[in-house]
Amino acid sequence: MKHFPLSLIVAAPLLVLFLLPEAVRAVDRSPTVSIEVDAASDEGELHRIWRYFGADEPNYAYMKDGRKLLGQLGELAPGEVFFRTHNLMNTGPGAPALKWGSTGLYSEDVNGSPVYDYRIVDLIFDTYIENGVRPYVQLGFMPQAMSTTPDPYKHQWRPGMPYDEVFTGWAYPPKDFEKWGELVYQWTKHCVERYGREEVERWWWQTWNESNIGYWRGTDEELHKLHDFAMAGVLRALPTARIGGPDTAGHGGDFTRSFFRHCLDGTNYATGEKGTRLDFVSFHAKGSPRWVGDHIRMGISNQLRTIDAGFGIVAEFPQLRNTPIVIGESDPEGCAACQGDQFSYRNGTMYSSYTAASFARKHDLAKKHGVNLEGALTWAFTFEDQPYFAGFRQLASNGLAMPVLNVFRMMSKMKGQRITATSSHAIPLDEILKKGVRESADVAAFSSRTDKQTAIMIWHYHDDDLRGPNAIIHLSVKGIPNIVKLAEVTHYRVDEFHSNSYDAWRRMGSPVAPGRKQYAELESASNLATIGNPVSIAVKDGDTALSFELPRQGVSLVLLDYK
User: Could you tell me the domains of the chain?
Assistant: First the structure.
């Protein structure tokens, strides 16, 4: 795909154009896309669902690159970003490994009496909070001294090995559910004492992970019991805590329905009373990329169909219609620590454009079902002391933000009310659900407004990771307040040459160990970049317009700040 320099000029009172060479204006090479935004429309509050992140490996949080990345996440929306992680209750000294972590939170003395050690979990949560991030507390997994099958305990999994080898002694029920509940109570009580009631009230608390597959080696009934005792422990320490679940693999189907029925109408195993409070509900949704011939083909339809079905299950229960939903893991595929050809999309702009296109459709699916979507959690963080751009699903590599993180930076600039944005080349939601984006590219937009600003995010996405022609975007905005005569345009971009440390590293020759000067250049390339400097454009009778080209896999954020 050939790229051209873009020069911004004012071409008419209501038109701003990026100069487009004749070679890319031909219809057979470059689709012409009309996008219309109605700044006077109101589709309800913009739910900032992107503010949730997570990872298998809790101990990376307090390492050098983990701390740096947490700081960058916290900067997106200080105090409003949440982080979920596995392995917070595992037995071990806190040494990280792929798909593993430990804190040594619980052990027993020679008499079988509990011994609580909060040092490592405190270090993890301290690091979150110091960086403007709050815990989404996953209560798991089972400490070795409490497990019904304690050996083998720590798994020895590596990329390429069978995934089932991950599920060892930590995945089993407790020998004593009362001790399990007491452990959760003592830890919650400690958190309230350390961080304060007002702080901990803002956290989310849920039990285990994907209990409908290998992560749980007990029965469904034992999972309900595990959850009841855990939540009773949380609420005994903090009655105002926000609790929920079940964070199933996929929508969970009948497993999820059974969990909801138990929580809504069943007998609580811990208290003997009716039900277990659900302040939020959660399930997971993944795509299904695969290698076809010589390239990766993404499976956005698989992820969106799972969300569609998950929202439908929640909507079956009238008591849950307004309950916040967190898609507790929401990603293009399922294994962040895996490597291989089918994961080759992760370092570059395929991941970032997929993220823009899929997040917008999550809002549409929530509207379709009339449910309350609170968040969609991206299960990606960073992997410490690994080669540069090693092929993991992560937001940063060796301290360098990757293109996908810059899409989240774009999203963080959108706020206020969602407004109507239509595109001549948007693939209809029903078509994406059925077959993905396999023919024409999806060139579409998502927009918001405040009293002082209109924000439009535009993406150029296709499931096939292949080069293609740039799209010629003609963007018109109407409904701007009539008193506004000028708007300042700031155009942020993620593409091959903007906001992209990975392609900068490749152009550098893919150095194994970049020197200080090279690293500084890569850090600069990892920042969210603009195309040119902000410019002022005329607004007449509430209308304005601008045009530019958008490369395949590119994402733009156009901000119109009213003057």
Answer: 8-44+415-562 (2.60.40.1500), 52-160+170-412 (3.20.20.80)
CA distance 371 to 363: 10
Q: How far apart are CA 323 and CA 16, in angstroms?
A: 44
Per-residue pLDDT at 229: 98
Cis peptide leading into residue 152 (ω within 30°): yes
How big is the CA angle at 254 (ends 316 and 181), to the nearest 5 degrees?
Answer: 100
Rounded to whole angstroms, how far apart are CA atoms 516 and 90? 38
CA distances to 25, 53, 402 from 346, rounded to whole Å, are: 31, 16, 9
What pLDDT score was predicted for residue 170? 98
- The pTM score is 0.94
Are 386 and 376 in contact by the 8 Å Cβ rule? The answer is no
CA 83/CA 58 separation, integer angstroms: 10
pLDDT below 70 — which residues of the chain? Answer: 1-29
- 210 catalytic? Reply is yes
- What is the phi/psi pair of residue 163, to 5°? -65, -30
The residue annotated as part of the active site, out of 57, 210, 329, 496, is 210
- Count CA atoms within 13 Å of residue 475 on its CB side: 32
Amino acid letter at 529?
Answer: A
Mapped onto helix, strand or coil, the DSSP state of residue 376 is: strand
Cross-strand partners of 559? 455, 490
